[in-house]
Amino acid sequence: MLLTTTSVIEGHQIERYLGIVSSEVVLGANAIKDMMAGFRDFFGGRSNSYERAFQETREAALRELEDRAKALGADAVVGVRLDFQTVGTGGMMMVGATGTAVKMK
């Protein structure tokens, strides 16, 4: 299945719009990640643990979006948008993904 941020897929024609699909994935960051990120914040540099956590969460949200589109009989999802947020004060991260499930000709 193709997931794209564009509204069209070059070389393909959309036959039918099946509806909006969305997914939300929340991942809790643990105290060790918070502590290591604090050191990185103080000394400078990138926080690899948080980067990996965001990457895993983003990939999970896109997999869930794809699964929901497949359940509708879609061949692709167009207009995909990702939103990243922190939830609460405990270091929880949320990635939301939305798009339009379509059937291609």
TrEMBL record:
SUPFAM superfamilies: YbjQ-like. InterPro entries: UPF0145_dom_sf (IPR035439), UPF0145_YbjQ-like (IPR002765). Transmembrane segments: none annotated. Gene3D superfamilies: Hypothetical protein apc22750. Chain B. HAMAP family: UPF0145 (MF_00338). Belongs to the UPF0145 family. This is UPF0145 protein GCM10022218_45620. It comes from Sphingobacterium ginsenosidimutans. The lineage of its organism: Bacteria, Pseudomonadati, Bacteroidota, Sphingobacteriia, Sphingobacteriales.
